[in-house]
Structure formats: C-alpha cells, structure tokens
Design a protein that fits this description.
30 strands, 24 helices, binds zinc ion, ten-stranded mixed beta sheet, globular, alpha/beta, about 775 residues
C-alpha cells in the first residue's frame, strides 16, 4: 500500500526529491495523542504524552526517527527526534560520518575533498526547547513543528527535509514539563492559576539549568553534549525560550554587544544573517512585535556551547502569558528594555505590536513560525552553513594570530580532584589534552614528563581559551559616567580560578613532543579529597533551608552535597517556625536568596496557605534560639543580610543599598585573602578566588564577638581577578567570611558563593570546614 501511494504521489511532486514524493499515511496530529490542539487556552501536558506523540509520529511517518539517549535526573526518558527525508534517514550514519570528518579538518585537510563531502552531506540543525519549564510554549510548539515537517507536502518542507537533518529535542528538561503541568492542573481555577510552582523545576538547578553548558555538572547537559553535539556536530542551532509579557513579542538575534571575544567572527555573522532572515520572513507573514538586537548579549559561554563548537546559535524569546492562561497587555503597559522600546518602531523593531490579548496560542504560533523560518533559511543555504562550520574549525586548527600556543597545567602542587575536574570538562567539550613526553623548562620552572598540555591548535580551541583565560568585561555605561549597562548574565568563567588550578599560557611552540590526546580518569568526589585532616562534615546533623520561593542556590547546595556525600535534610518554613531546631540539627544552612523572599515567602492571597508566608518573625526567632542554644547557622551570600537582621548581628553590609554607579559586580571572580590560622580556612591556600554576585561585604561593629576568616585585598587594584567590577574601593579590605558568636552558638557569614553552580571547587572546602566546625 505504501508503494502504491508512492507512485500516485510521485505524479503530483515530480520535481521533488524521492523522499518527499511519498505522502505519509495518516500522520497523527498532536491532538490525536494529547486530546487538545497545542496552544489551546488553559491546556498543558506532562512529559509522557509528549513522548507518546513522537513515538506515534515515528510509527506513522518515514520522515521521523526517535532516539532515546538516556534518562533525566528524575528518571524520565530523554529523547531526540531526527526529522529528515526518508533517503537521508536511511543513510543517517553515513551523513554523521561526513559531519565528523568535516568537524575536524585534520582528518580531511584537502579542501577539494572537503567540498566533495559537503556535496554529499546535509546540514544538521539542532532545535532545542523547553529548558525553562515555565516557558510552557516550549513544551507544545515542538509537537506542531514536528507534525508540520512530518505531514506537510509543500515544496518548502520538501526542501527542508532534503537539505537538512533536523534534530529536535522537544524538552531539555523533561522533569520540569511534568512539574509545571501538575502544578498548573492543580491550581487551575484558583488564585494561583498561572503562577510558577513552589519548587525548582529541575531537581538541582531550576532556572540555572541553561547555565551549565561549560561545567557539564548535570545529567541533562551531559546527554546533550555527549550524545548530540559531540556525535553529530550540528552547524546551526535554535533554542526556544520565553521572556516576560511586557516587552517585544519575540526576540531574535543579532545579539547585543558584547560578544565574547573568542567566538569566531563567522559564527557571529552567521547568527546575524540567520536571525535577520527569520525576522524578515516573520514580518512578511504579518507577525508584529519582532525585535532583533535587544536585551540578549552573547558574552557568557554558560549558555552558548555552540559558539565554541562551530555552530551558529539562534535564541528566540517569545513573550509569555501566565503559563497557559491568557493575559491582556494594553499597549501603554508595554515597557522599554535594553535596545528596544516596544511602543516605538525602530530599525530593529519595525512593526510594534498593538497590545491586547496574549495567549498560549500566540506563543505557539510565534514559536512555530520562527522555527520554520529558521529551517527554511538553513535549508536554502545548506552548503554555505557546512562550509562555514568547516572554515571555523580550520582556522582553529591552524591557530589564531596572537593566541597562545598552548596552556600548560603543571602537575606539582595541584589538587588532583580539581585537575581531574578540569580534564573531565574538556572531555565533554571535546577539547584535546596532551601530555609532555619529555621534561621541559619554561622560565625558571621545570616540568616533568606527563605534564598536561592544552594546545590551542585544535577544532575547539576557542572553548579551551575562553575557559582558561581571565575575562576582561568592557566598561559599558548607559551614558558616559552613568550607570552600568547590565550584562544579560554573569561576566566571568575562568575555570582555573573557579577550580583552584594553576595554568600557564605559553606563547610559543613547546620544545618537546606531545602525546596523543590523553583519556584521564574522571574525578572522584569524596570529602577526604578536599577537607583538611580528619574533617567529617558528614557526621554533622545538617539542615538546608528550602524556601517555597525556588532558589537555584539551594538546589546547587543539594547537588554539591549529594555529589560529595554530605548527608543533610531539607527543611522548610513550617519546620523552622516550629522551633526546637537544636534537638534535630547541629548546623543549618541558608542558601543564597533574596532576604525578602526568605522572610515573607510567597504571597498569601495568591498561593495556597501552606506555601505562603516565608519564615516570618516566628522563623527568625526560631533561628535565633537555635544559635543561642549552641547551633551553627551558615548564611550564604544574599542570605547574609537576612541573618544579620533576624539575629541582630554586630556586622553591617557595606554594600547594602549602594547605587550601581557606586558599586557593581554582576558575577565576577574576586581575590580573597584568608587568615591561614583560622579553622574555617584549613586546607585552602592563603589567597584564593571567590565567586561574587549580589553578595555583601562586611564591617565589624563588635570585634569581641566576631572572627574574620577572609577579607578582600586592601589595595582596590588587587580585588578583581576576572569579569567586571565597578567600585572596587568599596570592597577593599572588607571582611568576606566571618564567624559571629551569639549565645552558645555561632553564625558564619559567607559574602560570596562558596559552591557556585557546582563549579567553585576552590572555595568549596570553606563550606565543608564551616559544617565541620558545627560538630558538637
Ligand atoms: Zn528561558
């Protein structure tokens, strides 16, 4: 029957390639599996029906193949859906082999041979969605996109299927799809309808789940990098997100400055051209409110693995409703953002949206249309995208003028776990690390055979360089002398500083032979590897505060403890308010969180009573009583201001209430000077780098009750190590880690994030030491 259909349809599509000629039999629409049309008001789905739909599509269409590449943190299947012509899917592995050979020009140095591969190959387009689970259009639009590609008989779709292999990841965080869908279903028709769930939508990272693309700490990140990027080498990528309700209807690149300087100019120009082509087409199709070159910059690699792996990266950010509930957005309520005023037409925002109702249907429509525009442009320029990606790799292999020849990782005096972590990161990123085959000398320093060397002449050298060097963020102001122009994300990523590993940049070729790329053993995380002497923080009865206002730092704290084998218990508002904490715990950690969120929690009128109200005054009193009776309260970063106020500590935050023109540090690495005699600093070098982001810095009002374990340097010029810092004199000489005695107990204040996004091994021992010191 399929064969008969093929012949019949062949008459109608005589000009198309073979695979597009056959109309697939009864390809199911998403509604056939979900029970509703994606984009229907007040309708969401959890993860299982989404997987079921793609399985049904695979069964009915020869344009679709579903690969399950692993399981999520919560155990759900993680899938990628390959969509292409039948002919392409039949030779998918041969096409993948072409990708692999083009991605490394050392395998095919001859450009004529590369051109022959390009002629036989297809452009691989990775489309990822729904990493942020409350951006719910992202869980629905991929169903429509896949249906359209699997069922449409238009010449445009035929060309897409013929020229590209689409790899569609319908959700980068499947666990969160179900968390949000269940919360939404449970609150429909109540005051809480359309609110975010009172928990992180990824078990450990919540909204930070898209900030893991260079540390690769999480299961989901590793699946995508190891099984998709490192295997199929996509040349173009699209990531679907949603933004707030009151700006443009959709953002598409070009990105704002600054662009991280190690991103190849050809990829930047590819982003620009592709994004503008998408915006052009959306405007032609009558979509209004399309903004380019606004709000989103391209500085942090934490969200942009692609930019260091030969691929263009398109981010779309569609305006949100209230989950799947409609909103009304009057034109006058639209608000200006960086680079765009949604009430005024401009070159990068040619047709303002008139305001009015905004629904989940609008979101799905914008996301689907922009994705089709993306695929259409990519398919029309198949050979160019493939050629560009190879050119980027070829330049990297040849070596960029002015770049160091290599980075050397000395073996002497290093923490082996930190070095192993760095090598593991490079393994996920496909950065080759080699070993010296003979001893050598640089300056006055001697190196043994086996010393690790990272040459910067390899396909993904840009990733290695961006990770190993210090970031110098441009001093961008809203006007000369005015407030800083806020970066979209943090400004530093220097792994040697975060991990506490010493590396050396080497300008010239090394005088010795290097081994083939080494396969180092993965790091083993065990407390004995980082804590001094006989520390056993695992023996301390530890509580980690968990607010109903989801705090990613709380999730990261649990991730670090689960990874390193520290036992703990999560405690919420009611458990703390109930008091008598000393009977159950020796130490209680307040992860970094806005003090107002800790104190007041979720609003009572909106959320059900059991989730509302925060710690409140009773919680603050219970924490004070816990400390007075001999407990140890450990406050991290933003939570310090809560602890200072709630427990009336003789300490002030010198940065509190400062205007950004006076002080600004949007995620930077700063130098800390430790008191080597303090028990909190055991096992950590006297100078280290700490992650500073919205943190406090302290003046001590009553030195008789306070012991300072770490300070920022007294010379302001010494404070910044990597990233951006305005107002260094405000920090210079101030306390960054201290212990305050109160009653029979203590409060330990960290003015930085010692366990930052699971990356900062350099300062992690300080947190473990703080726990250890709580043992009674
Ligand atoms: Zn997002």
């Amino acid at each position: 029957m399929r064969r008969a259909l093929l012949v019949l349809m062949g008459l109608a599509y005589a000009a198309g390639p073979l695979a597009a000629q056959r109309k697939p039999a009864r390809v199911p629409a998403p509604s056939a599996v979900l029970g509703f049309v994606p984009g229907t008001d007040r309708k969401l789905t959890d993860w299982e029906p989404i997987v079921a739909y793609f399985r049904a599509l695979e069964a009915a269409s020869d344009r679709v193949v579903v690969h399950e590449i692993g399981h999520t943190t919560g155990g759900a299947p993680f899938i990628v859906v390959f969509i292409s012509s039948r002919a392409n899917l039949a030779r998918l592995h041969a096409l993948g082999d072409i990708q692999r050979r083009l991605a490394d020009p050392r395998l095919v140095p001859d450009s004529a041979a590369a051109e022959r591969l390009i002629r036989r190959g297809k452009v691989f387009a990775l489309v990822t969605s729904d990493i942020h689970s409350t951006e719910v259009g992202g869980s629905l639009s991929p169903l429509d996109i896949a249906y359209r590609l699997a069922s449409d008989a238009s010449p445009e779709v035929a060309a897409i299927l013929s020229n590209t292999v689409v790899m569609l990841v319908p959700s980068l965080n499947p666990d969160g799809v179900s968390i949000v869908a269940h919360w939404y279903a449970q609150t429909l028709g109540t005051n809480a309808e359309g609110t975010s769930p009172p928990e992180l939508y990824n078990r450990y990272t919540g909204h930070d789940d898209n900030r893991d693309w260079y540390a690769f700490t999480q299961v989901e990140t590793r699946l995508v990098v190891d099984s998709l990027y490192d295997v199929w080498h996509p040349q173009v990528t699209l990531d679907l997100h949603q933004q707030g309700t009151s700006g443009s209807r959709i953002f598409i690149p070009p990105y704002l400055d600054p662009i991280e300087p190690n991103v190849d100019p050809l990829l930047v120009q590819g982003d620009n051209a592709l994004g503008l082509a998408m915006a052009w087409r959306l405007t032609a199709e009558g979509f209004s409110g399309v903004a380019v070159n606004s709000l989103y910059d391209a500085w942090s690699p934490s969200r942009a693995f692609q930019h260091y792996h030969g691929a263009a990266r398109i981010l779309t950010e569609t305006a949100s409703a209230r989950l799947a509930s409609p909103v009304t957005v009057p034109f006058d309520s639209l608000r200006e953002g960086e680079g765009v005023d949604p009430r005024a037409a401009s070159w990068n925002f040619v047709t303002p949206w008139p305001g009015g109702a905004w629904t989940i249907g609008d979101i799905v429509r914008y996301q689907t249309a922009s994705t089709m525009a993306f695929l259409d442009q990519v398919s029309h320029n198949r050979a160019r995208w493939m050629r560009d990606a190879r050119a980027v790799a070829a330049r990297a292999v040849h070596g960029w003028p002015g770049w160091p020849y290599a980075f050397v990782i000395p073996s002497a005096g290093q923490n082996p776990v930190a070095v192993a972590t760095l090598l593991e990161i490079f393994r996920h990123a496909q950065v080759e690390v080699r070993a010296a085959l003979a001893p050598f000398t640089l300056g006055h320093e001697h190196f043994f055979p086996g010393t690790y060397v990272v040459p910067l002449r390899q396909p993904y050298a840009a990733f290695a360089k961006a990770m190993l060097e210090r970031q110098v963020y441009p001093d961008l102001r809203q006007y000369p002398g005015g407030p800083p122009r806020r970066p979209y994300d943090v400004t530093a990523e220097t792994l040697p500083l975060l991990l506490g590993v010493r590396v050396l940049a080497v300008a010239d070729t090394l005088p010795i032979a290097l081994s083939a790329p080494v396969a180092a053993s993965p790091p083993v995380y065990h407390l004995a590897n980082v804590t001094a002497g006989d520390a056993k923080p695992g023996a301390v009865r530890t509580a980690v505060y968990r607010s109903f206002v989801p705090a990613p730092d709380e999730g990261w704290t649990r991730w670090v403890f689960d990874t390193w084998g520290v036992s703990y218990e999560s405690v919420g508002d009611s458990a703390i308010r109930a008091g008598d904490l000393g009977a159950r715990f020796d130490a209680l950690i307040l992860p970094s969180q806005d003090p107002r969120a800790i104190l007041s929690g979720l609003p009572a009128g909106t959320y059900p009573a059991r989730y509302a109200g925060g710690l409140g005054a009773p919680g603050a009193q219970a924490l004070a009583a816990f400390v007075d009776s001999g407990g140890t309260l450990i406050a991290l970063n933003e939570a310090c201001d809560f602890a200072i106020g709630a427990l009336d500590l003789p300490v002030t935050d010198v940065l509190d209430e400062l205007a950004p023109t006076d002080f600004y540090a949007p995620g930077s690495l700063l130098r800390l000077q430790l008191d080597p005699g303090d028990p909190l600093t055991a096992g950590v070098p006297a100078q280290t780098a700490a992650w500073f982001e919205s943190g406090p810095a302290f003046d001590v009002a009553d030195p008789s009750r306070v012991r300072v374990a770490a300070r920022f340097p007294t010379d302001p010029a010494d404070v910044l190590l990597s990233g951006w810092l305005l107002g260094a004199p405000r920090l210079a000489g101030k306390a960054a880690l201290l212990e305050v005695r109160r009653g029979r107990g203590r409060v330990i204040l960290f003015g930085f994030r010692p366990q930052y996004r699971g990356q900062s091994l350099a300062t992690l021992p300080l947190l473990f030491n703080a726990l250890q010191s709580a043992q009674r």
